[in-house]
């Protein structure tokens, strides 16, 4: 019997209990996934209390992915480089932190488009926040890519590139430049919060110049079909959805906790229906 949890604020609408419930069912494991909504002023005290509970591991979400690190006994190399943890496991060496966001993104993309990374590709990454960093790091480690990064605050794009060892592989560009050059990319990844419910009608960038067959990904999963993806679809793009990443990062967290290897694919359709409220 396992006990897992999620620390964040707010966590009331989290899909993680549902996802991990499905993963337990798929692997025949018995367990429980609890939500820990922690107010910022109570963070230190509540995390100490969580660590004294009978938990095997827990996820960490906004706004604590960085703040959790001093509370841990160790952090794996990739999470340490990113300075962000989304998965914590109780081990014989204490509480160890991992980050499954970037690999979750990349592997869900590879599962859908197995041939995408067969040759070097041009990528446009929109955004330079926490989510963008994880994705950028995973992309650079595992794929032959040239990356343009566009962000509202250009200096944040520049520092993300410099801090993640991207010099020579990536460059910061303006939204105008990215829009003009949209037809030159093989893969476009939207990582900002623009287009997220309740602002479904907004989109970060016009895709007017997009070429057919480009893979366009949006990590926003509420709604499943964002305005950005709708425009991409109209231009003949191949789509990758935010809930695919969400599911895969949870699969990797579950794998870290249990050493079992559940599959995301059989759950995708059911998850999409749940998100659409069907
Ligand atoms: P997360 O950890 O979810 O990535 P974050 O670190 O707050 O969240 O980053 C949010 C991203 O969305 C950033 O790239 C942010 O751009 P800035 O770096 O300029 O703040 C981007 N973003 C949020 N709201 C935006 C808006 N209205 N227009 C353009 N970009 C926006």
UniProtKB/TrEMBL annotation:
Root EC class: oxidoreductase
Pathway: Metabolic intermediate biosynthesis; chorismate biosynthesis; chorismate from D-erythrose 4-phosphate and phosphoenolpyruvate: step 4/7
Residue intervals of the SDH C-terminal domain: 242-264
Annotated catalytic residues: 65
Record: residues binding shikimate: 14-16, 61, 86, 101, 221, 249
GO biological process per UniProt: amino acid biosynthetic process; aromatic amino acid family biosynthetic process; chorismate biosynthetic process; shikimate metabolic process
UniProt-recorded Gene Ontology molecular function terms: NADP binding; shikimate 3-dehydrogenase (NADP+) activity
Catalysed reactions, as listed in the record: shikimate + NADP(+) = 3-dehydroshikimate + NADPH + H(+)
Span of domain Shikimate dehydrogenase substrate binding N-terminal: 6-88
Quinate/shikimate 5-dehydrogenase/glutamyl-tRNA reductase domain mapped to chain residues: 120-193
Entry keywords, A to Z: Amino-acid biosynthesis, Aromatic amino acid biosynthesis, NADP, Oxidoreductase
EC number: 1.1.1.25
A GO cellular-component term linked to this record: cytosol
InterPro entries named among the record's database cross-references: Aminoacid_DH-like_N_sf, NAD(P)-bd_dom_sf, SDH_C, Shikimate_DH, Shikimate_DH-bd_N, Shikimate_DH_fam, Shikm_DH/Glu-tRNA_Rdtase
Positions annotated to bind NADP(+): 127-131, 151-156, 219, 242
Subunit and partners: Homodimer.
Stated family: Belongs to the shikimate dehydrogenase family.
Described purpose of this protein according to its UniProt entry: Involved in the biosynthesis of the chorismate, which leads to the biosynthesis of aromatic amino acids. Catalyzes the reversible NADPH linked reduction of 3-dehydroshikimate (DHSA) to yield shikimate (SA).
Name this protein carries in UniProt: Shikimate dehydrogenase (NADP(+))
Organism, scientific name: Halobacillus litoralis
